[in-house]
Amino acid sequence: FTIMKFKAVTFEDSLFKNCYFEDVTSLTTYFRNCTFIETLFYNTDLEASKFIDCQFDNTTFLHSKKGCQINFDEDYSAYWIYFVNFLGTLAVLPGNIVSALLMDRIGRLTMLGGSMVLSGISCFFLWFGTSEAMMIGMLCLYNGLTISAWNSLDVITVELLPTDRRL
């Protein structure tokens, strides 16, 4: 096993005899009830917690890797991360428009309390997210609702100051 990347692999009841593991990185990879005979682990991130009820006979671990070995270029698309953040930020625009139209009609404190309660409810429904599309939709809803609270909080804070002190 040389220059391999294991992602969510589980080896069970396996025998590794005269094996050579070099430059192996793993993410949620485990060995259960495995036997290692005359095996060399060189420059791997396989640590003791990855081996569950395993037996080692003449096995050597050399130059173990430390720290996080996740490569974000291969595991996560940067485009996707930025696109989801863009959608969440874009959802603030309708929230700003709604808060501007409703601020004087329903009042600052009602707007603050109502938007905080509604954003808390939308945050609660994140628990039931079953797909990426639903999670992105809930993110957009949450961002759209919380901006109303921030806008009303800004107005309330400014109105607490005397008129001659406001900028």
TrEMBL record:
Superkingdom field: Eukaryota
Q: Which UniProt keywords apply?
A: Membrane, Transmembrane, Transmembrane helix, Transport
What is its subcellular localisation? Membrane
Domain SV2A/B/C luminal residue range list: 1-61
Q: Which GO terms describe its cellular component?
A: synaptic vesicle membrane
Q: Which Pfam families match?
A: LD_SV2 (PF23894)
The cross-references to InterPro entries, in alphabetical order and at most eight, read: LD_SV2, MFS_trans_sf
Name this protein carries in UniProt? SV2A/B/C luminal domain-containing protein
